[in-house]
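Z., the sequence and structure:
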Amino acid sequence: MTKILSNPLRRACVVGLFASVLMTGCAGYSLVKGGEHVSIGSMSVQAPGDWNHWRGGDGTEFWTLDGPALQHILFVKGVGDDEAPWPTRGDRETVPKFRKGMSAIEISELVQATLANEELQNVRIVDLKPDTFGGHPGFSFTMTMTSKKGLDMKGLAHGAVIKDKLYMTIYRGAALHFFDRGLADYEMIAASLRIDAGEN
């Protein structure tokens, strides 16, 4: 928590998140120390450096260095058929749903549509390719987008469908400085991730 609230700019960037907590139930930050192994649902990862871990009352889990508006890693923890990939603050009637049997292209479009539902603008998927995720065959892709307030952002996602469930990590951040600041750590986190698909 100390890292996130270390200066006025970063404090200002998390105000909106704390407002949303009032609507989603109990939630809070904890510090993940460098080298620590962490279980997130049926996924396990190792932190290469210190990160702040948010666990929301709606089941959302993400890590951030400087505050979620600046950069964060979202964990998609085994989404089943006809479920939203993650809780959003957008229009619940139009939230896109995961369908078993989706291809990597369709999943990238699902992520694109879900981000657009959160009122991110000009979301573009770039460089979709086969990859390994959690020790399983999967995919990765990069993204560009613009926040509602006009902030240019970049993203990088990894994922796999295992036993008809979708697992992903989605890293996004401000294109100026903050995306690059956490990128190397994110890539190590994604590479360290393992999935026990026998658990929920």
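The longest helix spans residues 178-192. Confidence is low (pLDDT under 50) at residues 4-26.

Let me know what you think.
H.
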